[in-house]
Amino acid sequence: MAVTTPDGSTVHTSLVQGWGRSFDMKWVVIGLCISVVAWLALIPLGFLIWQSFASTSTAQVPAVFTLENYATAFGTTDSLGLMFNSLKFAFGTAAFALVLGTFFAWVNERTNTPFKSLFFAMSIVPLIIPGILFTVSWIMLASPQIGIFNQIFRDWFGLATPLFNIYSLTGMIWVDGLHYAPIAFLLVTAAFRSMDPSLEESALMSGASVIQVAFKITLKLAWPAILAAFLILFVRGIESFEVPALLGLPVGLRVYTSAIYDAVHSYPSDIGLASAYAMALLLITSLGIYYQSRLSSQGSRFSTVTGKGFRPRVSDIGRWRYATAGIFILYCIFVVALPFLVLLWASLQKYYAAPSWAALHNLSFAAYGEVLAYPGFYGVVWNSAKLAIGGATVVMLLTSVICWITIKTKIPGRWVLDMLASLPLVFPGIVLGLSLMIFYLNFDIGIYGTLWIMLMAYVIKFLPYGMRYNSTSMIQIHKELEESAAMSGASWFTIFRRIVLPLLKPGLMAGWIYIIVVSVRELSSSILLYSPGNEVISIMIWEFWQNGQYIELSAFGVMMITALFGFLMVVQTLSKRFGVKDV
Amino acid sequence: MLSVENLSTTYQAPGAKPVLAASNINFSVPTGRLFTLLGPSGCGKTTTLRSIAGLERPSKGVIKAHDTVVYSSAGNIFVAPNHRQFGMVFQSYAIWPHMTVFQNAAFPLQVQKKRLSSKDIRDKVMKVLAAVSLDHVEEREATRLSGGQQQRLALARALVMEPRLLLLDEPLSNLDAKLRDKMRFELKKMQRELGLTTIYVTHDQSEALALSHEIAVMNEGKIVQIGSPRDIYERPANTFVADFIGTTNFVEGTVRGGADDRLVVDTRIGQLNVNAQPGISIGANVSLSIRPEDVHLSDTAPAPSSNSLFVGTVRAKVFLGECQDFKIDVNETQLLARAHPSVRTLVGEQIHIAIDPEKCTVLAA
Ligand SMILES: Nc1ncnc2c1ncn2[C@@H]1O[C@H](COP(=O)(O)OP(=O)(O)OP(=O)(O)O)[C@@H](O)[C@H]1O
Ligand SMILES: [Mg+2]
Which SUPFAM superfamilies match (chain B) (predicted)? Predict the structure, then answer.
């Protein structure tokens, strides 16, 4: 645009130059993003596929193409058992978590059960009790040897054989299902809330009982969402590492994740076999995620939200509300109170002993001192902090640009970017760890064995979370806000920094905090990528467990849970002040 | 028959201050009558209806249907909505999208306590579907119905259970104008034929006037007038009702004198004769409500009568086909008038106005 100034000369406004520059800058940033994401998401995957077809190379024999790994991974009765175990475990976990979560969602949204304000508070618990601690605490509660439950039944009822055996498929499903139920609760709650309340009210007016309304209307209408939730939980279950590793491996009950760990850690390690298992796992998770996204995109078929923003009325379920409250309290006991208390108890002992009057006299804080004095303790915490904060920052910034490209521009092929950034959803942590490990072992650019490779794993793993947080808030930013900034002559980079990022802030902050919390608990990728001197918190817990240092583990666990809880509380208070909604 | 006594409903959202959405509502509906709750948006019509349905729990009052008490704050009685046997049509129709037309209509029979054979159910459902002329689409997915069909399905679903009371919440507001007129007649016909005691909620005054036996006009959670459609229209109890029901001219004035059953009111447009009213004495400040169609216009001076006569200037006029709307200045006050198309006076010319004392409603100012 040329403008004639009062003295008659023609000048090019800065707008032209601004656009010119911003145009270049924009493409540089976009190009960079695409290559970074492609490099992060695709290369390890490609290499993994290649490895699964390669024989194990040794100093003498180079790797050659082979189908042997697949033959071992799928062709033997042993491997069939592995697949069945994996599917049974994932199915059981998902079903159990879904039934619990759906029940709680219904109780919370549709009935007059007391203590309802606790339901949402409960849903952040799995966030602050890492899977490994939860599993360990359940071993202390229900293992045949040291489990408190079994001891109680033995002492009180004189049972000769232990009643509960946590080292079993049922035990695994129980532990993981309890832990995942809040995810189901949140997903189903969202579905219940998006429902037009008059659909249920009209059923009530037709004379249907509260239960009939729940089964014939509410659940039927939420069915697509419930099915999608099931698939998400199924994928979580099949990716789950802590529970199968701690509860399954000791009794030879293997699923894909623990089999991969086993193959890598056996001597000599069998990378080819691990890769073939990883491929099987990837296939299952990809199918799960694919169907889930298809369901979600058509799931809105039934959700006819009306303009009225009022919540549906809750049904008076009479005396049953004590039963529903009771079940909820029981759940809280199983998922928070008992695990935390048993860890607390163990942490206060000198040698691990089940709770008793005698043991009560041996309480001491020695374990805490020991953990704090542990060589490398501060290094480990510092590593975790660096990785969590670094990873969260990189993910949120990177995905904010990606979301801007996929949502705000019309660049052809932007869906590829979207897809690439969401691709890590299908990587189970252990598969991601495996693929990064073998790739950077083979292409040594000096990051294998350092914190950098773990940072990379975290960034890849949490990219999809960043996408989710950023895209939700990006959609809400009106195009005209940017355009008006552009019209005032700002360059693209300035617009992004001064307009887009500040507007994204609530989502950015929420995502950032979430990723920090999940990074601190990350175990399944780290387990294959850490090296001595580069441990992180979850690895330290893992090592305590392997060394049988239960007391130290418990003390460390109690400190970690308290710290995470404190962190979330501080964040909650701060975010209320600064307008960041739910973490 | 339904009676509602001293009903109040408060919404108490956690952390918000309570909203008294309906306060001290009293009315009763004789069997077979259609009773309308009419009022502007947010005045508490839906709240009242939902309280009767049992979907909201009132804070006080008594609700009786056919002499059974379904709600009483004093007696601590609250019959759950699914045990009241009231049929209800929601504003959004609330047609279940996961069922066919037949399944939607059959639902109330399938869930009721009294078990019916599937043949009985089929007969009953087909009968109501025929009554709302949906029998030809019984197998269709309910989501693939037009708006009008959905409305009729919602009605069929409410009727199939042979309700003791039919509750309708703005059942026509989601339809386009043509269909709305048609459905209004059908609804009226059906209600009269079946003799169903009905409560009808609407914010559309013409709908209320056309359908109802009796109307309750609501404002800010209270009933401000109850009466027959004609009562409400011709003798509004206050300025709110007069203003809300149709358009009207308000003329402020002071009562000067009177003879027999007549009063003379001094206003800015001149002296007006009105019917005497109990409670209105000489010297009182009043507001007169005069409907536009009661402002009689003529090109030439009319013969003297008890009517009040004025001369005004036509400011604007709109030809509407069967009538024309005028804006007329009388002594610098504007009057709206609706006249027969035969009136020929042009804009800017003088026009003669006659106002019948019978048609002036005197309201306390
Ligand atoms: N569930 C609720 N919680 C809190 N306030 C409510 C709720 N439902 C209605 N209200 C408030 O109560 C008042 C009356 O609402 P109601 O829905 O009865 O109005 P209405 O007369 O039906 O209006 P409309 O014609 O818009 O449907 C309004 O101020 C509304 O905002
Ligand atoms: Mg309403």
Answer: MOP-like (SSF50331), P-loop containing nucleoside triphosphate hydrolases (SSF52540)
